[in-house]
Design brief:
- This protein is an all-alpha fold.
- It has a two-stranded antiparallel sheet.
- The chain has seven helices and two strands.
Length: about 150
């Protein structure tokens, strides 16, 4: 009886051949990337800018007229019933409000706080923020942006 040996050579990918094929088409790949970059730049220069605004409202005083059923939450969840919960410990709302525009305005308005937050950019002798020195990459990118 003849022994069956599968030919695994047909199922393999030769990485040298793959990279050689890509290297042979390097100018086509490079030119297509450049065309895509130019088209994207043209589109972004003329695109209409859209801004979104979101608001989060939270009641100042919680309505405490109903019964306090917080102790029965675990028992009610076993029965498949959802009880109202108190909003005083709503950490997700706190995190959202912490990133709000009002908080940002207060942080910017606190003139003694910003130099402490951005101490690497603050020049205490001149009492102003200084531009950090740009490296080679920063200068190259600004030159490319001006083009």
């Amino acid at each position: 009886m003849a022994e069956f040996k599968p030919d695994f050579a047909d199922n393999e990918i030769d990485l040298r051949e793959l990279f050689a094929a890509l290297w042979r088409g390097k100018w086509l790949i490079f030119s297509l990337c450049c065309v895509a970059l130019v088209l994207a730049s043209i589109y972004l220069r003329g695109a209409e800018r859209k801004y979104t605004v979101s608001m989060t409202f939270k009641p100042v005083i919680e309505d405490s007229s109903g019964p306090n059923l917080a102790g029965f939450g675990g028992l009610a969840s076993l029965a498949g019933v959802s009880l109202p919960q108190s909003g005083s410990g709503d950490f997700a709302t706190y995190r959202t409000l912490l990133r709000s525009e009002e908080v940002a305005e207060r942080v910017i308005g606190a003139t003694e706080l910003l130099p402490k937050i951005f101490k690497n950019e603050w020049d205490a002798q001149q009492a102003q923020f200084r531009q950090p020195p740009r490296g080679v990459l920063g200068r190259s990118l600004s030159g490319l942006k001006s083009i």
